[in-house]
Amino acid sequence: MKPSILISTTNSIEGMEIEKYYDLISTNVVLGTNIFSDIGASFSDLFGGTSDIYQNKLDNIYKIALDKLRIKAKSLYANGVIGVKIDFDEISGGGKSMFMISVSGTAVRLKSTKSDSTIGDTIELTVLPEDLQATVEKIKIIDKIKRKIILSDQEWEFLIENPISDTISELMEIYLNAFKDSPYPSTEEQKRLRRNIPLLLRQVQDENITNLLYEKISENTIVISTLIKETDSFSPDFTLAVLKSTNIHAGIATLSADKRPYFREDIEPMNSILDLLDNLPNSGKVGMVKGILGSKEKFVCENNHQNDVADTYCESCGRNIKGLIASEVEEIEEYKLKVGALKLLLA
To answer: Which domain holds residue 317?
Structure first.
């Protein structure tokens, strides 16, 4: 077995050269404890011994944090993380305490300096009991998702801490089906989905998530565009493609979403989005309309509602001559400011 992601607290790794620097990545893990269950730890500390309770908890979140850091590095196509810094902290209050670990480092692409070697040496394959139990739990959850059985809060918590990329498509189908009639959660199942799906998608942080969300946007624009915003999954290229497909309203619904992170090459498609929106054809018209007292100039919206020629928005459907409602026009204006600011930052 060869480790796919090397992690080091130093800024270099012996026998490796850095081909490319990607980005600073970080992760935080919080593990709750009950102060009464830690009485043994308190006595141990009091008499100068070691605390197995605390040690086990710290070892557990240390492993989880490093695994999450590896997942983030992998999502950037890195194969190493250098300059890793680890901070532990304990937060107490209300009779309870929580352990928190923060891990950060720089994701990089490493290349071996040895011609006959690949990254990492072959290591003996071992399995820890907690890893075995976690895999068993994953298998159970995957089976439940395939059979469309509702997950419990505990199972969702486990899934968010241990994302399973292969289940995302099926979970999205379940999510869309749950909100096909209304985007607002009312049942306990809907509330649980609404609470956990955004958290899960943010944890995965895979470019395939962005692809999947944009593929589904025409199925339920409100639900999917909300997820794009909540998960920072904005893609200038995909939004431009949606707008060009004449799904103007779905494309505009994504404009207030963010991308993590922005690059200089994003500016060109973002400018193209502005050009397209600035040159939208009229879906309504201003013209003479015959009435009982003769002809009169009217603003006729795309739904054929007649309005006073001075009206910007239709009194019946709220659309302007371009077919946009007021909130969409506001989103476009905010987007223009965002593009302008991005140009200043990436100039």
So the answer is: 285-323
pLDDT of residue 36: 41
- Clarify whether residues 217 and 346 are in a common domain: yes
DSSP string, 149-164: PPPPHHHHHHHHHS--
Higher-confidence residue of 292 and 170: namely 170
- Average pLDDT along the chain: 84
Split at pLDDT 50, 70, 90, the class of 46 is: very low
- Confirm if 244 and 272 have CB atoms less than 8 A apart: no
Does the pLDDT value for residue 311 go beyond 70?
Answer: yes
pTM score, whole prediction: 0.65
Is residue 163 domain-shared with residue 198, that is, in the same domain?
Answer: yes
Is residue 59 assigned to a domain? Answer: yes
- Rounded to the nearest 10°, the torsion over CA 282, 287, 290, 292 is 100
If one counts the domains in the chain, the total is 4
10 plus 104 within the same structural domain: yes
Residues 6+ apart with CB under 8 A from 2: 118, 119, 120, 121, 122, 123
